[in-house]
């Protein structure tokens, strides 16, 4: 089909990509996975071009790292300017002002009125690990509670905190001690006899029971929660649940840590997704879209908590790279000038409208859900049984790629298509991408029916 943006002229992989793929298999271990079997040549905005001349609409955004779009002129300019001055001195050796300026701006945007301090690190997992360190130092308690279905990283501590076994934890134990998992709401799959409100009350009661059966609250330093679970399929709790957990934390002197690595910087229509729930976290971890793909992460927290550690106890060789700080400053400027929070709301509204149309036409759509531009489509074999359609979901991704759309799956059962398109995507690119996605779901459902 002749399209305006998506243009796949070769098989995937094409000839140049196949040569690179052969070299990849020869030198890169199998455990480093990949989605699209091709290699990027260039990227701009919401479009990707591969080495064989194929062009794709990007609904993946480097797993949520590219909210301001690929190679935004302001980010590129900031990085070029910085490289001409210096690349790295180590903030703990000779400091630099972009770190301070970026920290000031991030602290000012964080939810709540309390005075905040900010430290920068390298990756999302490293930010989570440091938030745990800070919480333990401040509370003098060792226990950490995360949630079933949550994802926090691939290091020992964050893997221990992650609530999905395959592919993240299987055969990689033993895991870090004093890490516990509490139940997290999954309203689509709640018991049929329960209303959403009853289900929420039940889960909050289960957490209180958890303090009896699993760990005493006096030993817990922190609860770590994703405002919207990413890897589990964009599972969105309601406000009552989030506030209920927050109140339990306050009641027992436990710190509430928000993992905003995937939800932050405009993805849900707010700078931070916790703003939707009326909660001021004690600590917030950030990464991904905060610097348009430049490796950097951070921990934001109340001043008295952040100052609990002594000099030299926090930091690292590349933590708070000046390149990441300059890119981050450019991102915040872009978000304000281009109204990207408002744009995320508009994108999300349109996606949910189209998903509603998908659901009317295709009975493989079990549920569609979203918060801002963080939208997902859960696919099932049968709407009554809600049996996950794992193989069909993988086929959707393949059908989409062959038509020129890059999209990701997720979900506890690997049956969710999740959308993380750049927020700078044009209306025309968005519509074309959604058209392709609809075709891909239809084609995958047909393959499934034949199979």
Description of the structure:
This protein is an alpha/beta fold. Helix content is 39%, strand content 17%. The protein has 13 helices and 16 strands. The chain has a 7-stranded mixed β-sheet with strand order 4-10-9-8-7-5-6, with helices on both faces. Strands 11, 12, 13, 15 and 16 form a 5-stranded antiparallel β-sheet that branches. A hairpin with a 4-residue loop joins strand 12 and strand 13. It starts with 14 loop residues before the first helix and ends with a helix. The mean pLDDT is 96.
Notable characteristics:
alpha/beta, 13 helices, five-stranded antiparallel β-sheet, 17% strand, 16 strands, seven-stranded mixed β-sheet
Query: How many angstroms separate the termini?
Result: 26 Å
Order of helices and strands: HEEEHHHEHEHEHEHEEEHHHEEEHEEEH
The average pLDDT score comes to 96
Structural class: alpha/beta
* Count of DSSP-assigned helices: 13
Low-confidence stretches: none
Radius of gyration over all CA atoms, rounded: 22 Å
Measured by DSSP, the beta-strand proportion falls in: 15-25%
Count every beta strand, where a strand is a DSSP E run of 2 or more residues.
16
């Amino acid at each position: 089909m002749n399209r305006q943006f998506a243009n796949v002229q070769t098989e995937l992989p094409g000839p140049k990509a196949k040569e690179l793929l052969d070299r990849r298999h020869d030198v890169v271990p199998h455990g480093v996975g990949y989605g699209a079997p091709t290699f990027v040549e260039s990227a701009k905005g919401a479009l990707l071009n591969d080495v064989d001349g194929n062009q794709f609409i990007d609904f993946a955004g480097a797993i949520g790292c590219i909210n301001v779009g690929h190679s935004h002129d302001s980010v590129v300019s900031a990085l070029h300017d910085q490289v001409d001055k210096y690349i790295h001195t180590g903030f703990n050796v000779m400091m630099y002002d972009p770190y301070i300026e970026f920290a000031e701006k991030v602290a000012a945007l964080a939810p709540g009125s309390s005075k905040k301090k900010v430290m920068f690190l390298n990756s999302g997992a490293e930010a989570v690990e440091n938030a745990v360190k800070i919480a333990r130092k401040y509370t003098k308690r060792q226990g950490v509670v995360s949630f079933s279905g949550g994802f926090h990283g691939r290091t020992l501590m964050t893997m221990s905190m992650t609530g999905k076994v395959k592919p993240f934890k299987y055969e990689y134990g033993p895991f870090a001690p004093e890490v516990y998992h509490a139940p997290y709401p999954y309203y689509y799959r709640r018991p049929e006899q329960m209303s959403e409100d009853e289900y929420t009350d039940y889960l909050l009661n289960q957490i209180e029971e958890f303090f009896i059966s699993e760990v005493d609250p006096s030993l817990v330093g922190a609860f770590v929660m994703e405002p919207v679970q990413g890897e589990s399929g964009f599972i969105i709790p309601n406000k009552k649940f989030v506030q209920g957990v927050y109140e339990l934390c306050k009641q027992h002197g436990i710190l509430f840590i928000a993992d905003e690595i995937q939800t932050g910087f405009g993805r849900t229509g707010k700078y931070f997704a916790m703003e939707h729930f009326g909660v001021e976290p004690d600590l917030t971890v950030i990464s991904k879209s905060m610097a348009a793909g430049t490796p950097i992460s951070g921990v934001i927290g109340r001043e008295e908590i952040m100052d609990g550690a002594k000099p030299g106890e926090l930091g690292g060789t590349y933590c708070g790279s000046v390149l990441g700080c300059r890119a981050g400053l450019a991102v915040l400027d872009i978000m304000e000038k281009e109204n990207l929070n408002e744009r995320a709301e508009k994108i999300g509204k349109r996606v949910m409208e189209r998903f509603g149309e998908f659901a009317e036409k295709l009975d493989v759509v079990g549920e569609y859900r979203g918060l801002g531009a963080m939208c997902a489509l859960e696919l099932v074999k049968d709407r009554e049984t809600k049996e996950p359609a794992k193989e069909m979901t993988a086929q959707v991704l393949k059908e989409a790629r062959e038509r020129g759309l890059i999209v990701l799956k997720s979900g506890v059962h690997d049956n969710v298509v999740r959308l993380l398109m750049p927020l700078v995507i044009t209306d025309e690119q968005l519509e074309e991408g959604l058209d392709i996605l609809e075709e891909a779901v239809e084609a995958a459902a047909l393959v499934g029916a034949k199979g």
